[in-house]
Specification:
5-stranded antiparallel β-sheet; 4 domains; OmpA-like; Immunoglobulin-like; mainly beta; cell outer membrane; single chain; 5 helices; Neuraminidase
Amino acid sequence: MTKKITKIMLLSASIAYFGLGEATGQSNLKSIGTPINTREFREHAFSISGDGKTFIFVQDRPDGTKVFLSTRVDKNSPWQIPQLIRTISDKVQKGKIIGTSLTYDGSELYFDAIFPSGFGDRDIFYAKRIGAEWGEPINVGEPLNTALFEGSPSISQDGKMLFFIREKFEKYKGTEPCYTIWVANKTDEGSWTNFEKMGEPVNSECEKAVTLMPDSRTLIFSSIRGGGAGGFDLYQTELQEDGSWTFPRDLDFLNTPNHEDYSAITGNSEEIFVEIKGDIYSAPLPNKFRGARQVPVNVMIIDAMTKKPIDASVFVAMNSRNSASFNAKNGVSLMQLKAGNNYTLACEAPGYLPANQVQVSLENVTGSETINNTIEMMPKNIAYTIKVLGADNNTINNAKIRIFDLSNNQIVPIDLNNNARVVFGNLYGLTVSSGNADFTGNWIPETNDAADKFIKTIKLVTKTVATNTSTPVISNVKVDKSENPYVNAPEVDMTKPTETFKLKSDPNITFETKKIYTLNDVYFDRNSVIVKSEYYIDINRLIELMTLNPKLNVQLSGYSDSFGDVAINQKISLRRARSCADYLKRAGIEPNRLLVKGLGEREIVLDSKGKEDTSKSRRVRFIVY
C-alpha cells in the first residue's frame, strides 16, 4: 500500500471518528501539498515564521535527515520549491532532528540534534540567518544542555523565553518514550538561566512535544493522560497573571486514537500545522484555541539623516507597565501585540538618541490588519557648521573659534570650513573672537536644529572685557522663550483643595494634586540632558495620568548636582526638565499644560553619611495641579 493511499484511509477514518455531521478541524485538515509533501519521504519537525511566509521542515531520506526552507508571497500563495539548509543538514550524523522552532522574524532557527559537539544525548542548537544564507549550528551550551535528552525547542516571539523537553524514560506501554517540559529565560548577555521544570497540571504523566503560541503565554503540548482520545494527544494551557497555568484542555478537533504530537501555529494564530503519517497538514484553529487576540505590528527603524535601516532595540510599554523588548535586525522588528490595549514603542541603538517613540492604539482594531510604523532615530554625533556674524550681520570667515566639551573638558576639533562634530544633549562652551569683537557662552545641540541644517550661528559683540580663551567663561545665562517654550501653563495654586487620581492601568497607583513627586529612576549622567530608555515606565505613568485627566497641568522641575559652575548647572537642570516635557509633548500632551523650571543646585540629595549623592541630585520632580 502506498504512502498516499495510507494517508487517505487515515483521513477518512478520522472523519468517521468525529462524525460526518460536525465541521471539525480534523475534517477540515488540508495537505500542505507539493512541493513540501512528497510520496517518498517523511516530512516533519516543522515551524513557521510570524508573518507566515517562511516554513522550515525536516525530511527523512535514506542518506540522512535533511532540513529545508520554503517561502511564499502570502498565505494565499503556493509554497515555493524547498531549499536545502546545507549548513545544518551536513552536520546531522546520528539520529534525526525531531523539533524545530523558527523565531518570529525568521532570523534564527532553534532545533535539536545529536552532533559530535554535544554534551551527551540530544542537545538544542541554533543557527542564524544572514541574508539568504544560514550560519553554522551553535550549541546553546550549558547549563541548558546536559548529558540528558534536550529537544523540541520552542522560542517566544521576543526570543527571551525557550520551552523544551528534557529527560527520556520508557513509560507508555514500553514503546513510546516520555519526557518532561521545561522553560528557560535568556539573559542580556545571551546565555540561558532560570531553568524551571514545569509542574502540574502541565507535567503530569507522559509529555512529549511543546509549542509556544505567538502570544507567548499560551502553550500547546503533547501528552498521554487520563481522558484522552488515545495515544499522545494535543493539549493547551494558558499562563495566568499569578504565574500559574490553567488546567490543560484537549484540542478535541484534532485528537484521535492515533498519536498527535508536534504542531506549529501561524503568527496570527489562525492556522495550525500537524503531521499525519509522514505528511504535513494544516487546519483553521478554532477561536476558542487562539488565545489572546494578537495584532501584527511591524516597525521599521531608520537613520533620521540617511533614511537607511539600522539595528536597534524596540521597547514596548503597555500604559505604564513594561511589556517586552524586541530586536530590529537591519531596521525591521516584527511582533505581535495583544488587541484592545494602547502601547508605547521606543527605540534604542548604539550611537543614537534613545527617546524616539510612537503611540500604537489597538483598542478598536478590527479584522486581521497589520499595523506598520516607521521610527526615525537621530544619531547622537552630528556635524555642525559654526557660522560667525559681525555686528553688521555679515559673515566672518576668519574668526577664531574654540568649542569645549564640558563633560570631559576636552577641546572639540574644528576643520577649515568651521565644521565640528558634537553630541546632542551635551553641554558645550563656545568662545569666538575676531578683532575687537567676541562671544563667550554655552551651547546644547538639540534635534530641532535640523530645521536650520545644523548651523550654529554666533553673532559677535564689541569686546569690553578681556577674556582668557583657554577655558570658557560662562556667566549667568538669560533664559528666553527659545530655551524654555513651556511657560504658558498657570502656576500651581496651593489654595485649591487637594484631589486624588488613579491610573486605569493600575488602580493601586494614585497621584495627589499639589504633592511633589520625583520621577523614580529618572536620573541623568553628568552634563547630560538625555532621558534614558530604561526610565520610560515612570514617565509613561505621568502620560497616562495627563491623558485620562485633560484638565490637569503639571510642573516639571529639573535639578543638578553641586559640581561645576552654578550658572551652567542651572541651565542644564532646566534642559533636563524640558527633556521630560518634550517626551510628554510627543505623547500628545498639549504644551500649554506643561510648566518647566530649572532649579539647579537648589535641592541637592544627601546620603546617609551627609555627603551629596550626585547621581540622585541630577533628577526631575513634578507636581500635578
